[in-house]
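Audit log entry. Action: structure prediction of a protein-small molecule complex. Ligand: pyridoxal-5'-phosphate. The ligand was supplied as SMILES and no pocket hint was given, so placement is left entirely to the predictor. Protonation state taken as written. Sequence taken verbatim from the request; no trimming, no tag removal. Recorded inputs:
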Amino acid sequence: MPLTANPSFSTITLSRQTQAIIHADAIINNFEYLNGLAPESQSMVVIKADAYGHGAVNIAQILKGIAPAFAVAITEEAIKLRQAGIDAPLVVLEGPHQQEECVQARDENLILVVHDSQQLDWIRNMTPERPPVIWLKIDTGMHRLGMTPADAARALHQYRDILTTDCVLLTHMACADDLENTATRQQLETFNTLAASAGLGVSIANSPATLGWPDTHGTWNRIGLGVFGSDPIHAADYQARLQPAMTLSASVIALREVKAGDAVGYGEYWRARQDSLIATVGVGYADGYPRHCPNGTPVIIRGQRAPLAGRVSMDMLTVDVTDIAGIQVGDMVELWGEQLRIEEVAACANTISYELMTRVSPRVPRIVRHR
Ligand SMILES: Cc1ncc(COP(=O)(O)O)c(C=O)c1O
């Protein structure tokens, strides 16, 4: 199969079948669903970390003319999108890390989210050149990034020459994925007190807040995970509406019979209780499949679940396929995606779907599929 999707492998015409299919229709469906939950807001799609592993350029192209703006974490990510011809509004969530980035941001028409006065000074020092558009990040309780509400109120006055009416006040919720947690209400109250006196646009909601906390819907919502089809709240209703946007799959590259009592893989981590059939699959932790997945973690082969048997190694993993009839070398195996939710695999690895998605390595070709 020719691998045109990954330029670094363009001279190779035949390879293993390991791939991440990116489902364009699922991405559009998920965006429209989340956007529809907040009819008074605009929804920007967060495509930092290469769109959570889906390919930032892929996602910006799929959502061209559908999503009104995108957000990235750092300036370099925004510049790469511009170089790929993405001309949509781009918000840089961490703002400039170096003074030079302010000029780049202005030249590339980026919106900078600033969180401290040094960044504001850098931007002011650019004048009399036209400064980039600035949004202001407020720390309302997450205690990761942002000005205190008191400092922000002072900055709005002190830097009023560069904080124009385009400025949007932004905050980030620490616990929006937990619908019982009162911290979200407290953060919202703190934020609203400042916002009421500022008279500017506001941006609060991420995916869980968009799904579960309508009071957080602002001028702009910032949605990432939900667009990629994973439900941060773990509610059956949402899982029915959000369609997986990535299917990670690989093929069976070897089959072997083992006897009862035989061990499989590093450290003899799995031992056969009965005579068994083991499939070796061409994907490992160097591709982003978590090494922490224990024996029993499901994969899908021939439409059926089969359990991992043995430690995940760098380029391969092993599965007990004793109960799968007719299995052959070359059969495709789904590690997560349309038939197996990524949240379930993440739980087996004792992590979250955000981490699994973002760790799919550059070695895995991303193939965009339109149904
Ligand atoms: C500041 C900020 N806003 C929005 C998002 C998007 O969050 P989610 O993927 O939960 O929608 C993130 C992601 O981590 C973020 O850091």
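Audit: result stored. Residues 1-7 have pLDDT under 50 and may be disordered. Residues 46, 93, 172, 206-208, 222-226, 232 surround pyridoxal-5'-phosphate (CB under 6 Å).
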